[in-house]
TrEMBL record, chain A:
Descriptive protein name: Xanthine dehydrogenase YagS FAD-binding subunit
Keyword terms: Oxidoreductase
Pfam family, any one: CO_deh_flav_C
Superkingdom, natural source: Bacteria
Gene Ontology MF term list: FAD binding; oxidoreductase activity
Gene3D superfamilies: 3.30.465.10, CO dehydrogenase flavoprotein, C-terminal domain, Uridine Diphospho-n-acetylenolpyruvylglucosamine Reductase, domain 2
TrEMBL record, chain B:
Aldehyde oxidase/xanthine dehydrogenase a/b hammerhead domain mapped to chain residues: 28-132
Membrane-spanning residues: none
Any one GO molecular function term: oxidoreductase activity
Keywords: Molybdenum, Oxidoreductase
Protein name: Xanthine dehydrogenase YagR molybdenum-binding subunit
Length: 333, 700
């Protein structure tokens, strides 16, 4: 790996200014992803600004909800009793990802900013627009099993690998960002972006902007939420597809509000708004959920290797509802 | 050195669960692996590899690399030491500008630290000229008939008249089965420490190598380097797994040896990265098996045909013996097998646990499951009906044909009798549930040329053989064998392995280690007692080699097994889980039940992993494997491994070896993927004939 400077500021504002003023600098969190990239030559920064020791590890009540510091470890966030009861989708999403060792090391912000596991992105001998803009996309006509089916562009067909990010969109989380010009708040749903013709950028954050916290508002739907992740291996694998569902039902069983967010299908967590609209205000049936998913999937463009994904994400969505709504499971029986 | 046919050993320590004699060293981290041995002022090597699949190196620009702090030198084809022999296309690296596959070694960077070497390698600019290439195995590749298949078996066999028999058969099954490229992926990546020195006016090369056979490495390297075998010393005291990929020296060993020849005697440490292992250290070829089976009214096979299409590398031939188990597995008067190879511009394939048997028996045993259904027979009964009286190919009686016993005992233990015959007939909540069975087999092998040395010491006996314990427990099992052969306790044995300074030993491969090395140790022990009596003074010694009697002319020697699997398939997501597997084996006398169980269960896990996950995806546009790490080449994780049990029949025939053992390292992986595939079919009614079985194939 390239020789680099390693800085360890004690104040978030200092960290921001160190990176903002050096185009060759990068933040280092838990290191579970970036350190691999350093070894492989996928990332070659001249300076690492270590933010893992900054005092950003609060996990506390805030404004009726919960404030999650950027440095809260994935394992701690998943195990927190308040999270498990108020935002269970987050615990399930976190625990479905990585391994125990990695969850102990990985941070909340780092999880959101992890990069694609596309095999061509990680192989510096092959073209990749995300790693080297303008070099081309090897995945579009290559090994495609993990490729996107929604919102892919000609520049990039990969998916975002984070499970947590999918869950955060389902609970209307807000990401708190500190930049050279001060603090701003970005809805989790807007943090990641579709590739368009600029595959290099995963998120809307600018160079030098540091995630300091994630705010979790309390809601009825967040309390009744779950995460279904589909993969060949029982653990320690990225999603073929995943589904976060959060639902608030009236006493008569009709859907008052809901969120359906898909992972493993797009360059960002994919909020299935068409599916949500099809179900909102109606009583739930499994057939209705499947139809709603199909309505969303009208936009899907499967390619070689991803032909299976529409059916899989539709079924996984039905499964997530079944897990949340016991009478749906009864009905199916 | 004496040669003798050893007499059978009375088991005393043999058969007991002696804890691993090197267990404490390993779990406390004191056991040193290939690049951990302290050496004086090492240089660290990093490999620069080609990025075209076929072509030539036009220029190597070292300037940026050499300017990097810590980088000492760059060795490429223009200045690497010349080899005396270059006919092994895999090992003859850095001799010319030709590139034979993507990922081939084109330069070696030497530096004062591993980090500087790696960065130096990144900074070497290799200009390459690309030529047209072929890197995809298809059914219609141009292919050829190799002279032999691994290790030295007939390429094709033809007995009776298959076509006529199929024409008159009551039931005919014709299907194609595919297995993917797979990589061995031992826990310890390949690694070598090498240095040259001078002794008595002669050059001497010393290696610590992560190898399955130190003598084999010396034998392969010496003529290429233009030195005598005695001028090379190879040591491998501890090895973190191999699964065949360390059975022969691969190109990185030569890279270390060549680079070390340029350093004025400074040792070179070379650790292959996990990514590089997908190009440089061997793999299992993908296979395409075309099966035709015919039976009479009673489900007795009248014809068996197995035609195999697979691939080799242009640089060096390796012909996987995929159809070899088909030749002896079931009785049928008409039988035909063949192997054809496509020559591709790809990395060199090699041994991976049960080469031949693993892919071949996947195909054969799924075909048998399909045939059972077509004949309206229970799959266990179909196999029982086709169990041969004598080896169908050799015509010799089997020393032990334990298949039916394994099937019957396994069926009873697994609860097979209550299984519904029809597929897709059991659901449990969100899951379809099914069970499947497959047979396993592996030939018993004893390699010639093994020599052991027994020496009396103040505390007992030093027993030496230049074999390698790659983590299997060989050091422990051989201690038990030596103790019984000398009539002493295991505490009295100081067993020495892993060094070419010790007597000649064959590779830890082909499940032949314990049989081959153990027989030599028994021979040496028995000769020692004959030479020196059972109360010898310290310092007396005997070297001996074990001859075989005429048993190979009288019997066919094979191990057998039956694998049962329960598979659950998720009705919504298609995900597969294997909550229960049982393997019952006929493998001869088990020397150490703890390490044996570990081998058999490990084989079952690896077979299940192959069934569900393992696939090296080669991108034919580039020519290399793009799933080149353990995040994208999936092996079974802990959560995938649930109730796996292995047991064995109580056997004590000593016809094959004086210990009664027949080898256990590979049979656990054989048939296992078929048992899982058959169970998945039973669960869902979906027949998948290509490995791995992934969730998308079972989506509804």
């Amino acid at each position: 790996m390239r020789e680099l400077a390693y800085l360890r500021p004690s104040d978030p504002a200092d960290a921001v200014s160190l990176v903002a003023n050096d185009p060759d600098a990068r933040f280092l969190g838990g290191g579970t992803n970036l350190v691999d990239h350093l070894k492989l030559g996928v990332a070659t920064p001249g300076t690492l600004v270590d933010v893992s020791h900054l005092p950003l590890d609060a996990l506390e009540e805030h404004d009726g909800g919960l404030l999650v510091g950027a440095n809260v470890r994935n394992s701690d966030l998943a195990a927190d009793r308040r999270v498990r009861t108020g935002w269970p989708v987050l615990s399930r999403a976190l625990l479905s990802g990585a391994s125990g060792q990695i969850r102990n090391q990985a941070t909340t912000a780092g999880n959101l900013l992890q990069r694609t596991r596309c095999v061509y992105f990680l192989d510096v001998t092959t073209p990749c627009n995300k790693r080297e803009p303008g070099s081309g996309c090897s995945a579009a006509e290559g090994y495609g099993r993990y490729n996107a089916i929604l919102g892919a562009g000609p520049a990039c067909v990969t998916v975002h690998p984070s499970d947590l990010a999918v869950g955060l969109v389902a609970v209307d989380a807000t990401v708190v960002v500190l930049g050279p010009d001060g603090e701003r708040r970005v809805p989790a749903a807007d943090l990641h972006r579709l590739p368009g013709d600029d595959a290099a950028r995963d998120t809307v954050l600018g160079h030098g902007e540091l995630i300091t916290a994630v705010e979790l508002p309390r809601s009825a739907h967040a309390r009744t939420s779950t995460y279904v992740k589909v993969r060949d291996r029982a653990s320690f694998a990225f999603a073929l597809v995943s589904v976060a569902v959060a639902i608030d039902r009236a006493e008569d069983g009709t859907v008052r509000d809901l969120r359906i967010v898909w992972g493993g299908v797009a360059h960002k967590p994919w909020r299935a708004t068409r599916a949500e609209d099809a179900l909102r205000g109606r009583p739930l049936t499994e057939a209705g959920v499947r139809d709603a998913a199909e309505a969303e999937l009208d936009q899907a463009r499967p390619t070689a290797g991803t032909e299976y994904k529409p059916a899989m994400v539709r079924n996984a969505t039905a499964l997530a509802f079944r897990r949340l709504v016991p009478d749906l499971a009864e009905e199916a029986r | 050195m004496t040669e003798l046919v050893p007499s059978p050993v009375e088991p005393k320590a043999i058969g007991t669960a002696l804890p691993r004699v090197d267990g404490v060293e390993k779990v406390t981290g004191r056991a040193a692996y290939a690049v951990e041995h302290p050496v004086d002022r090492p240089l660290f090597a990093w490999l620069v590899t080609s990025t075209v699949a076929r072509g030539r190196v036009v220029a190597v620009d070292r300037s940026e690399a050499l300017a990097h702090p810590g980088v000492v030198s760059v060795v490429d084809h223009t200045d690497a030491p010349r080899l005396a022999q270059t006919d092994n296309g895999e090992l003859a690296i850095l001799q010319d500008d030709a590139v034979g596959f993507r990922g081939q070694i084109v330069a070696v960077v030497l530096a004062e630290s591993s980090e500087a070497a790696r960065e130096g390698a990144r900074l070497v600019r290799v200009e390459q000229e690309a030529e047209p290439f072929e890197a995809e195995l298809r059914e219609d590749n141009a292919s050829y008939r190799p002279e032999k298949v691994n290790p030295a078996m007939e390429t094709d066999t033809d007995q009776g008249d298959v076509d006529t028999a199929l024409g008159t058969a009551t039931t005919v099954l014709e299907q194609t089965y595919r297995t993917p490229y797979e990589h061995n992926n031992p826990l310890e990546p390949h690694a070598t420490t090498a240095w040259w020195s001078e002794e008595d006016g002669r050059e001497r090369l010393t290696l610590f190598d992560s190898s399955q056979g130190v003598h084999g490495v010396a034998t392969a390297l010496a003529p290429m380097l233009g030195i005598d075998r005695e001028q090379i010393r190879v040591m491998a005291p501890f090895v973190g797994g191999g699964f065949g990929s360390k059975g022969e020296a691969h190109a990185h060993v030569m890279a270390a040896a060549l680079a070390a020849r340029t350093t004025g005697g400074r040792p070179v440490r070379l650790a292959v990265t996990r990514q590089q292992m997908f190009s440089l250290t061997g793999y299992r070829t993908a296979t395409i098996s075309k099966f035709r089976l015919g039976t009479d009214d009673d489900g007795r096979l009248t014809a068996i045909e197995h035609r195999v299409q697979e691939q080799t590398s242009r640089l060096r031939e390796f012909a996987e013996q995929t159809a070899s188990p088909t030749r002896m597995m079931y009785a049928a008067p008409n039988r035909r097998t063949s192997h054809r190879l496509a020559v591709l511009d790809v990395a060199v394939p090699s041994w991976m646990r049960a080469p031949g048997e693993m892919p071949g028996m996947f195909a054969h045993e799924v075909a048998m499951d399909e045939l059972a259904e077509a004949c309206g027979l229970d799959p266990v009964e179909l196999r029982r009906r086709n169990d041969p009286d004598v080896d169908p190919e050799e015509g010799l009686p089997f020393d032990r044909r334990g298949l039916v016993e394994c099937l019957d005992r396994g069926a009873e233990r697994f609860g097979w009798a209550s299984r519904p015959r029809a597929p897709r007939s059991t659901a449990d909540g969100e899951w379809w549930v099914g069970t499947g069975v497959a047979s396993a087999t592996y030939p018993a092998m004893r390699q010639p040329g093994n020599v052991a040395r027994v020496e009396s010491t103040d505390t007992g006996f030093a027993v030496s053989i230049g074999a390698v314990d790659i983590g299997t427990g060989a050091r422990t099992a051989l201690t038990q064998i030596a103790a019984d052969a000398l009539g002493v306790g295991t505490d009295d044995i100081d067993l020495r392995l892993g060094d070419t300074a010790l007597p000649m030993a064959s590779v830890a491969g082909g499940s032949s280690g314990t049989s081959s090395w153990g027989s030599a140790i028994v021979a040496a022990a028995q000769q020692f007692l004959a030479d020196h009596g059972d109360r010898p003074d310290p310092g007396l010694w005997t070297e001996a080699s074990a001859l075989r009697g005429d048993e190979a002319d009288r019997f066919s020697f094979h191990s057998f097994g039956a694998v049962f699997a329960e598979v659950h398939v998720h009705r919504y997501t298609g995900e597969l889980r294997v909550p229960r597997m049982l393997g019952v084996y006929s493998v001869g006398r088990v020397v150490n039940p703890t390490t044996a169980r570990s081998q058999l269960v490990g084989g079952l896990v690896m077979g299940m992993s192959a069934a569900l996950f393992e696939e090296s995806v080669r991108d034919p546009r580039f020519g290399h494997v793009v799933t080149q790490d353990l995040a994208t080449y999936h092996v079974a994780a802990h959560a995938d491994v649930a109730g796996i049990e292995a047991e064995w029949l109580d056997e004590s025939t000593t016809t094959f070896t004086p210990m009664g053992s027949r080898g256990i390292g590979e049979i656990g992986i054989v048939g296992t993927a078929a048992a899982v595939a058959n169970a998945a079919y039973h669960a869902t009614g979906v027949r998948v004939r290509d490995l791995p079985l992934t969730a998308d194939a079972f989506l509804e």
